[in-house]
């Protein structure tokens, strides 16, 4: 029979994938079709709403280039990115426990966000990536170990953040280049240290379709202050995460749902004077310490 009605159409789309040779793709696409059709039935979507959705997604795509990723922003603000991260971390933790686990809990992951820029400069331990940038200086230090507590030498910490006013280099205009981002390698004892600024809370880019969506939902666009880190070493699982500033606003209403209690770090205030690495500071500064725990790769 050629004609399908609103009741048979879902099954007809599913049946049309009978010859699909890729079982995982078939599973994902079947679930997508079922849930999308169920959603349309539930809200009784009008034709006008559907064409407006298509215009919204078109505008979202047109807003994307190598410095602006409106689709990541859409995924982040709808909680999709964080749900994917959290489910994958639960799965990895289960596999880790089944293979005997470790003495220490692995560092939790959170969203990568749209401001990661591959290939940032490698800098010596102790370097300052926040020099001449707006913001109060902060000294970051700690150790990277595996989940048995064994130090991981030569582990890469790829770090990036906005400045003290919450602006990322990618938002600073054509000529800014890379700022407030670098890669550091741990020493023989797995220790790392570097200087940057104490990051401020900031709004996710809200001058595009996602910003319009947030306002219409009655939501604010702000993220609590944080610094991003991608921590990786051969033989270990990479963790993409943040350190959140403990006294920042918006910790309880992050626009992208990325906060993890284990990643909230107190930033200690210090008066001008000699910093823990011997640097002479003419102004007050902050320090933050955090130890990362990587899971050995199976
Ligand atoms: C960020 O933290 O850089 C970020 C994450 C999600 C959306 C926008 C920005
Ligand atoms: Fe960020």
From TrEMBL:
UniProt cofactor(s): Fe(3+)
Pfam families: Dioxygenase_C (PF00775), Dioxygenase_N (PF04444)
Enzyme class: oxidoreductase
EC number: 1.13.11.-
Domain of life: Bacteria
GO biological process, one term: catechol-containing compound metabolic process
Domain Catechol dioxygenase N-terminal residues, every copy: 22-94
Residue span(s) of domain Intradiol ring-cleavage dioxygenases: 113-294
Keywords on record: Dioxygenase, Iron, Metal-binding, Oxidoreductase
A single MF term (Gene Ontology): ferric iron binding
Family: Belongs to the intradiol ring-cleavage dioxygenase family.
Protein's name in the database: Hydroxyquinol 1,2-dioxygenase
Source organism: Hydrogenophaga intermedia
């Amino acid at each position: 029979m050629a004609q399908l009605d609103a009741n048979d159409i879902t099954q007809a789309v599913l049946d049309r994938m009978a010859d699909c040779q890729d079982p995982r793709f078939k599973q994902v696409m079947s679930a997508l079709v079922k849930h999308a059709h169920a959603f349309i039935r539930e809200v009784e979507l009008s034709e006008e709403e559907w064409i407006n959705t298509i215009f919204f997604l078109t505008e979202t795509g047109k807003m994307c280039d190598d410095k602006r990723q409106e689709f990541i922003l859409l995924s982040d603000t709808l909680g999709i990115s964080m749900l994917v991260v959290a489910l994958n971390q639960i799965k990895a933790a289960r596999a880790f426990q089944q293979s005997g686990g470790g003495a220490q809990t692995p560092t939790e992951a959170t969203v990568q966000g749209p401001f990661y820029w591959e290939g940032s400069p490698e800098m010596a331990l102790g370097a300052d990536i926040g020099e001449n940038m707006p913001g109060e200086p902060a000294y970051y230090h700690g150790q990277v170990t595996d989940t048995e507590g064994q130090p991981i030498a030569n582990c890469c910490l790829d770090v990036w953040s906005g400045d003290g006013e919450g602006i990322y280099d990618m938002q600073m205009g054509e000529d800014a280049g890379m700022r407030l981002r670098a890669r550091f390698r741990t020493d023989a004892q797995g220790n790392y240290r570097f200087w940057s600024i104490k990051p401020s809370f900031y709004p996710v880019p809200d001058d595009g379709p996602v910003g319009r969506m947030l306002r219409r939902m009655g939501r604010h666009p702000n993220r609590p202050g944080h610094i991003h880190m991608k921590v990786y070493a051969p033989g270990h699982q990479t963790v993409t995460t943040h350190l959140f500033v403990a006294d920042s606003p918006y910790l309880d209403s992050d626009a992208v749902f990325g906060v993890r209690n284990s990643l909230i770090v107190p930033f200690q205030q210090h008066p001008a004077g000699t910093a823990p690495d011997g640097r002479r500071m003419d102004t007050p500064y902050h320090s933050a310490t955090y130890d990362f725990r990587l899971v050995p790769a199976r």
